[in-house]
């Protein structure tokens, strides 16, 4: 029992203000006593010291349990179920690692010996080259760190200017709970633990969870999640640059500038799942040639731990891979794909409060198909008649001609570019050209012909593929034709959001340079001119920012717990 001195303070923080007229006397000794639910009271989940849980439906009931020592914070207990789950996952990961190492170890041993012999043969020349290379790498990293530093005010200004968005509260709350105690829970208002209404998975919010746990400051939380998304891209760039002959300098400087080209890129500040999941998906396409099983695990992770809608571009990509693979290979890849799904369903088995795993799957499918953006009901003969009416009643009516071009016309141009250069792309990255085109086409067709809402953030399911695959194609230096290269570069810069006059300047400059240079010089000049302009695109606006005059976004009630009812109310009504 808590002391009377602390009771009023504790019960107000957990249960909110008493507006029901209930007495403060909370002692109810009758075990058969039934508390009357209060329809104006938002249900709250409470825990005792042994992690038992109860959902209270009135202020009177809540105060009774709080007086008995119950709180809104679940004890950090390690149950037998979680222990066995952890052991199970460790065994699976160990077997996968053993399989990959066993398969590749022999090749790597002979390859390592061969490389060492070559190094011994050219020791003097390599030492000389390494000295030059180290200085060059130091300079590159110095410029990259400077670029990251100069990017910070731009990101912080956007984080400070964002309005409160209910999805941010839901995603942050559920993921803080997930990484703390494996409860994927934003509170009873959104369906409870592992609810089907929680649509952005843990992959999207690692940065925001870290930022929140350190600072309990919404502004820093938003900024840290942007840098988490950037880290995802940099990690893939590191791996891919070691597997292919890529221009690593262009990749390093292009990573953050290309991120800012994504329409509604600041969705990553809200911890929305689209960008993080699509970065994992797009880079995994290029990993597919070297490590198809690993790529399949990443594909599945981007869907089930990121955003379910990522299944659309995956189907568009894998349809072409499926037709060309042997059955044995397909079977192994499907098993790898099912691994993240199986892990997620294990969590559901232990944590889902509204039924079995099968009921969860049925409810999830119903939630997706019945969502206002799904457009499933539009698949009918009468849809064409109402297409224009629905288009003009969607978010599309707020778009300008610039948005229409980059999201309606640009994907078509890029798919044509891919098919025209398919031999060069396939030779360097494997037979993935039609897969990339399919991964763009399927979400593009869904977005334009089925989705009623036309929410800009849903366009990221094809826009991210266009931008990030372009970054990798450009870094490979395989496009030598000046016309094709110019079209691709103009297409990329057309995604600029701030200094739009750069689009015309860039196109005029590369057109002029096209006639006075050879293919190699044209490629190098135009690529790095693009990076310079993309950097200036976020650098120029920062001169007008007065960040110190804007206070960070903090809510003191949320520092007790994000599940605190006062925290939720202050955020949603702020």
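^ Assign residues to that structure.
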């Amino acid at each position: 029992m808590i002391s009377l001195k602390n009771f009023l303070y504790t019960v107000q923080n957990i249960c909110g203000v008493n507006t029901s007229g209930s007495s403060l006397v909370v002692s109810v000794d009758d075990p058969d006593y039934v508390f009357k639910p209060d329809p104006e009271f938002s249900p709250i989940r409470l825990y005792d010291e042994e992690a038992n849980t109860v959902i209270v439906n009135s202020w009177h009931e809540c105060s009774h349990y709080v007086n008995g020592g119950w709180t809104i914070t679940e004890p950090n207990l390690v149950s037998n179920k979680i222990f066995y789950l952890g052991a199970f996952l460790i065994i699976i990961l160990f077997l996968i690692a053993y399989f990959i190492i066993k398969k590749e170890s022999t090749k790597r041993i002979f390859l390592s010996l061969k490389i060492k012999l070559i190094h011994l043969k050219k020791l003097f020349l390599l030492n000389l080259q390494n000295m030059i290379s180290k200085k060059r790498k130091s300079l590159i990293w110095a410029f990259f760190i400077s670029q990251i530093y100069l990017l910070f005010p731009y990101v912080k200004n956007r984080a400070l200017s964002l309005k409160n968005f209910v999805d941010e509260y839901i995603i942050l709350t559920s993921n803080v709970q997930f990484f703390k105690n494996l409860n994927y829970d934003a509170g009873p208002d959104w369906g409870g633990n592992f609810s089907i209404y929680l649509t952005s998975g843990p992959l999207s919010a690692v940065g925001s969870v870290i930022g929140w746990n350190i600072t309990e400051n919404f502004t820093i939380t938003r900024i840290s999640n942007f840098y988490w998304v950037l880290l995802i891209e940099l990690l893939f760039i590191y791996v891919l640059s070691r597997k292919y002959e890529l221009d690593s300098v262009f990749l390093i400087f292009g990573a953050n500038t290309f991120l800012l080209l994504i329409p509604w890129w600041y969705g990553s500040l809200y911890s929305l799942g689209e960008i993080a999941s699509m970065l994992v998906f797009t880079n995994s396409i290029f990993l597919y040639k070297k490590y198809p099983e690993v790529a399949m695990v990443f594909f599945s992770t981007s869907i089930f731990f990121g955003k379910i809608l990522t299944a659309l571009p995956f189907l568009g990509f894998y349809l072409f891979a499926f037709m060309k693979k042997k059955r044995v290979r397909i079977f192994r890849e499907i098993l790898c794909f099912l691994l993240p799904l199986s892990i997620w369903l294990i969590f559901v088995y232990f944590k889902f409060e509204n039924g079995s795993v099968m009921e969860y799957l049925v409810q999830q499918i119903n939630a997706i198909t019945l969502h206002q953006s799904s457009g499933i009901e539009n698949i009918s003969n009468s849809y064409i008649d109402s297409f224009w009416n629905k288009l003009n009643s969607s978010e599309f009516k707020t778009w300008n001609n610039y948005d229409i071009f980059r999201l309606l016309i640009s994907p078509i141009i890029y798919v044509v570019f891919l098919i025209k250069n398919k031999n060069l792309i396939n030779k360097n990255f494997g037979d993935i050209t039609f897969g990339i085109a399919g991964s763009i086409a399927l979400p593009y067709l869904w977005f334009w012909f089925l989705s009623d809402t036309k929410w800009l953030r849903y366009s990221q399911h094809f826009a991210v593929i266009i931008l990030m695959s372009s970054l990798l194609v450009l870094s490979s230096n395989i496009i030598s034709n000046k016309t094709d290269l110019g079209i691709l570069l103009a297409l990329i810069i057309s995604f600029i959001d701030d200094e739009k006059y750069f689009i015309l300047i860039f196109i005029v400059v590369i057109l002029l340079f096209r006639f006075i240079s050879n293919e190699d010089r044209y490629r190098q000049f135009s690529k790095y001119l693009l990076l310079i302009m993309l950097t200036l695109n976020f650098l120029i606006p920062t001169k007008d920012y007065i960040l110190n005059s804007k206070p960070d976004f903090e809510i003191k009630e949320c520092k007790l717990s994000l599940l605190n009812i006062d925290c939720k109310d202050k955020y949603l009504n702020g």
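The first helix runs from residue 4 to 15.
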